[in-house]
Amino acid sequence: MDLSARNQYLQTLLKERGYHIRTKKEKSVVLDEYCQMTNQNRKHVIAKIRSGDYLRTERRQPDFVKPRPEIYDGAVKVALSQCWQIFDQPCGERLAPLLRAEVDRLRRFSELDCTDEVAEKLKRVSARTIDTKLTHEKEVPSQSPVWPTQEPTALRKGTH
Question: Would you state the pLDDT for residue 134?
Answer without folding.
Answer: 92
